[in-house]
């Protein structure tokens, strides 16, 4: 039995203009896996999660959680799920302990079990030392962790987390990742949404990429990466016009004075690097075993100075 399954799931928001938020979404989440829905803002991730968690009715299609239909059996679905919404405010006079402990009690958990679950959840998100402080005195990231702790302590079968690490610093984010993986190892199922590719790669067993309401790719992180056409990235800092260089048919993204070349072919990436080295007198910031460091021009390789001064207009190759 799949933990989550959808069939032709669609959602259209009616108004002055109809907005098709989901377009015939089909995928399933196996029990005991962490499945991530990855997409940019406005892709339909939150709409999908709200439908699956019985908060929003679909326009068409079907969906089930642990075999229970979200339309005809919503009460049964809610017994087995725990949700962390994307945007949620905390009660200022509640403490992290009260969030984790009382919310578990409200789900019918025995007192002793609720205490143990609350302590474990608060320690997992590193809020144990702040457990008795009112949420009004906590930082934004600490408040978010209190909400996550309340969900983690519920001992649900399926967790639905809508961008749970948004607003968290790097250390807190990685701690949450570790907790999620531990939960999966214990047999829990997690459906996660994120727009952060690193997060999807680090925590997911499988993932689906959603774009403008449609699932455009699905598979393991390794399978998804193999679908990528551009395998190499070269970042050049400075004015490319000084060299008369264009994108040469490659995808180029510009961020201020940085130009990011996305390149499909390894040979082209290797050839592109020495071109910049020879004509720009640039320094490198890359490992010695990088393909670009293995230039076909030994003389230029021996003349590189990683601490060389650069002019304001000289392009600089940063990495591949």
Distance between the first and last residues' Cα: 44 Å
Oligomer: single chain
Low-confidence stretches: 275-320
Q: List the strand order in the largest sheet.
A: 7-8-9-4-10-11
Task: Quote the average pLDDT.
Answer: 81
Largest sheet: 6 strands, mixed
Q: What class would the helix/strand composition place it in?
A: alpha/beta
Indicate how many domains the architecture comprises: 2
Proportion in β-strands:
25-35%
Number of DSSP strand runs: 15
SSE sequence, one letter per element: EEEEHEEHEHHHEHEHEEHEEEHHE
CATH level-3 fold name of the largest domain: Rossmann fold
Any idea what the CATH architecture of the largest domain is?
3-Layer(aba) Sandwich
Helix content: 25-40%
General form: globular
Annotated CATH homologous superfamily of the largest domain: P-loop containing nucleotide triphosphate hydrolases
Tally of individual helices: 10
Q: Evaluate the radius of gyration.
A: 24 Å
């Amino acid at each position: 039995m799949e933990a989550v399954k959808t069939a032709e799931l669609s959602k259209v928001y009616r108004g002055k203009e109809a907005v098709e938020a989901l377009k015939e979404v089909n995928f399933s989440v196996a029990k005991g896996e962490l499945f991530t829905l990855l997409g940019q803002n406005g892709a339909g991730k939150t709409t999908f999660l709200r439908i699956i968690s019985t908060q929003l009715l679909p326009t068409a299609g079907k969906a089930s959680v642990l075999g229970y239909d979200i339309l005809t059996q919503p009460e049964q679905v809610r017994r087995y799920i725990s949700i962390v919404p994307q945007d949620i405010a905390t009660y200022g006079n509640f403490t992290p302990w009260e969030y984790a402990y009382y919310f578990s009690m409200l789900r019918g958990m025995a007192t002793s079990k609720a205490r143990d679950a609350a302590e474990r959840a608060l320690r997992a998100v590193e809020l144990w030392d702040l457990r008795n402080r009112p949420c009004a005195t906590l930082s934004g990231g600490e408040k978010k962790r209190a909400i996550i702790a309340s969900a983690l302590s519920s001992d649900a079968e399926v967790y639905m987390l809508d961008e749970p690490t948004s607003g968290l610093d790097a250390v807190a984010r990685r701690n949450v990742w570790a907790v999620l993986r531990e939960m999966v190892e214990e047999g829990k199922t997690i459906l996660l949404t994120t727009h952060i590719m690193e997060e999807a790669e680090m925590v997911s067993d499988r993932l689906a990429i959603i774009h403008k309401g449609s699932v455009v790719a699905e598979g393991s992180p390794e399978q998804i990466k193999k679908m990528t056409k551009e395998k190499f990235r070269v970042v050049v800092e400075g004015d490319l016009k000084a060299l008369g260089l264009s994108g040469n048919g490659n995808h180029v993204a510009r961020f201020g004075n940085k130009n990011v070349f996305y390149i499909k072919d390894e040979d082209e990436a290797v050839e592109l690097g020495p071109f910049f080295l020879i004509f720009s007198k640039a320094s490198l910031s890359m490992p010695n075993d990088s393909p670009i460091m293995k230039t076909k021009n030994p003389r230029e390789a021996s003349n590189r100075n990683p601490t060389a001064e650069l002019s304001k207009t000289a392009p600089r190759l940063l990495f591949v």
